[in-house]
Amino acid sequence: MSAPNKSYDPVEVEALKPDEIDRVRDEALAAFAAATDLDALREAKVAHVGDRSPLALANREIGALPPKARAEAGKRVGRARGAVNKALAARQAELEAERDERVLVEEAVDVTLPHDRLPSGARHPLTTLSERIEDIFVAMGYEVAEGPEVEAEWFNFDALNIDPDHPARSTHDTLFVEGPEPGADSQVVLRTQTSPVQIRAMLERTPPIYVICPGRVYRSDELDATHSPVFHQVELLAIDEGLTMSDLKGTMDHMVRSLFGEGVHTRLRPHYFPFTEPSAEMDMLCFRCRGESVGHPDRPCRTCSSEGWVELGGCGVVNPRVLVACGVDPEKYSGFAFGFGIERLLMFRHNVADMRDMIEGDVRFTRPFGMEI
Ligand SMILES: [Zn+2]
Q1: How many CB atoms lie within 10 A of CB 318?
Q2: Which of 105, 152, 286, 329 has a Cα-to-Cα distance from 40 of 20 to 30 A?
Q3: Which of 290, 245, 244, 252 is nearest to 133 (CA)?
């Protein structure tokens, strides 16, 4: 900045005197050298190279000089600015190199450090087994269907041919949810089975229908080694022309072979369900002893209690009344349904003795099943 100049002499402008130019140049060089990081250098740059810096102001004064003095002053200022810019660029390069070196050291990744200090979780075997069953049916052309867990009583019971005072209704030990209209004919319940999804599937689709319905279901049971108030079911439903019990058996034989190995097959025992007619309980040949423990007390089998067969679930040909409730013509179509619990299947497939192990969420239980995907 030019000094106050009372008697202005255009040849003797203070800011353009050689000593003054050298002084502001040296000041700039010293400021750059003193800058220890790029931020400080940026500030020094504004002060000594910016529009309001002494050298920039001096440069503007040149125009005020008489023509013959301009060349000399221009050279002086130009040399000084050149030296300042050069020093700035050099210091900038130095500080950038320093920063890069520091970043390399500070942000280095030590590839020899242990990578697994945070323990990884594991997918729950109920999930992986359920997905494996879904895959088996999807490969046969089935579609995975889902529905709400809080369900209208009509879907959970009435549409399935279970009358309000039907004994089957009480055996379900239903958990009721307060519905929008207390006292209304159809209450709201936590679904006791995944069958309401079958009803929804029939209402939403037109035959042929091939769906598998996996999901969580609820009963008012106490939690113990073999019961849980929340458990998982898989149900399948097939509606087509001419389907019979033998189609159901063939389908389930394929499923147990896929899950337990060649040679394992199923058998049917007569049973009763309101939503199927005829109905049956389905057993599968014990996959561990293949029935050879029967009559051989010296070779007992824990999986089937030496009975040779393991109970799998309930099944049957869909009751025509259920088809009618869902708008399906029973004269034209027939179908079969099957339902079983995933927990039970997991228990005998993997020798899990206590159901509580499955719901406690302890990763030590889950991890031995591996990352089955
Ligand atoms: Zn056995």
Answers
A1: 26
A2: 105
A3: 252
pLDDT of res. 172 = 64
Sheet containing 230-240: which strands, arranged edge to edge? 143-144, 209-218, 230-240, 334-341, 309-318, 276-285, 266-273
268 pLDDT exceeds 90?
yes
Q: Length of the chain, please?
A: 373
Q: How far apart are CA 243 and CA 282, in angstroms?
A: 18
Task: Provide the pLDDT confidence category of residue 280 given band limits of 50, 70 and 90.
Answer: very high
Q: Distance (Å, rounded) from C-alpha 159 to C-alpha 152?
A: 10
- pTM for this entry: 0.64
- DSSP H or E stretch at residue 138: helix 125-139
Count helices and strands in the chain by DSSP H and E runs? 13, 10
Q: Bridge-partner residues for 251, per DSSP? A: none
Q: Which residues surround ligand 1, an ion (CB under 5 A)?
A: 286, 288-289, 293, 301, 303-304
- CA-CA distance, 214 to 255, in Å (whole number)? 15
Q: What angle do CA 248, 150, 321 make, to 5 degrees?
A: 40
Q: Residue 190: which residues within 8 A CB-CB, separation 6 or more?
A: 149, 150, 151, 174, 175, 176, 177, 217, 218
Q: 270 CA distance to ligand 1 centroid (A)?
A: 22
**327-373 residue pLDDT tens:** 999 999 999 999 999 998 888 888 888 888 888 888 888 888 876 55
Q: How far is the CA of 305 from the centre of ligand 1 (A)?
A: 6
Cα(123) to centroid(ligand 1), Å: 28
pLDDT of 279 > 60? The answer is yes
Cα(304) to ligand 1 centroid in Å equals 4
Q: Which helix (H) or strand (E) holds 277?
A: strand 276-285
Distance CA 33, CA 30 (A): 5
Q: How far is the CA of 267 from the centre of ligand 1 (A)?
A: 15
Contact, 211 vs 194, CB < 8 A?
A: no
